[in-house]
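Usage

Read records sequentially. Each one opens with the input sequence:
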Amino acid sequence: MSRKHLQEAWEAMTVLKTFRLSQVNAALQHTNMESLKAFAKRLEGKGIINRTKDYDEDFFTVLKPKARPFDKAKSKAVTPISGRQKMWQSMRILRDFDAAQVATTAEVSAKSAQSYISQLKKAGYLFVVKQAPRTGNVIERAGETTVYRLLKDTGPTRPIPKADGVFDVNKKELQPFKQVEQKASVMQRVNVGEVHEQL
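and closes with the structure output:
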């Protein structure tokens, strides 16, 4: 695995906080278990992560999430990862998430996270698992957030928002925004009214 791919693996570990190597391997491309095991052993030796023995597969806990596993001289070669790329990686790892989780793990503002989530949702990449309540007082709505699920995981590179959709770099094609049709609900009410009139 290249230094860039090891960096991505480390970022996945910090998002998960407690993880198995198979989870990291499944979330990222260009990884393999042997390289991940060697990398985890190195991180464990530096006291950055802690290994807990298990019967089927060991799991690890990140002790120093702010640590930089690569020495300063060589880390300059690693290209800084954009906020959208970090958000996309977080979504691919978490699978189910709210905007606050994405913002925290990707180290971006809540507004940036919500904006990117909304664009991906309009393009069909995400769907709402649990809608936050829109009614009730502040106390009743406290702690309630909208939870999203990643529906389309097309690859490791983040989709890029455009005017009429998002460009999927992994598939090299534009995924257009879905048109929200409100006429369907209006028509349904009319039909129900007609049924009542006939009765």
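Summary fields computed downstream for this record:
- Confidence is low (pLDDT under 50) at residues 73-78, 183-188, 192-199.
- The CA atoms of residues 92 and 153 lie 7 Å apart.
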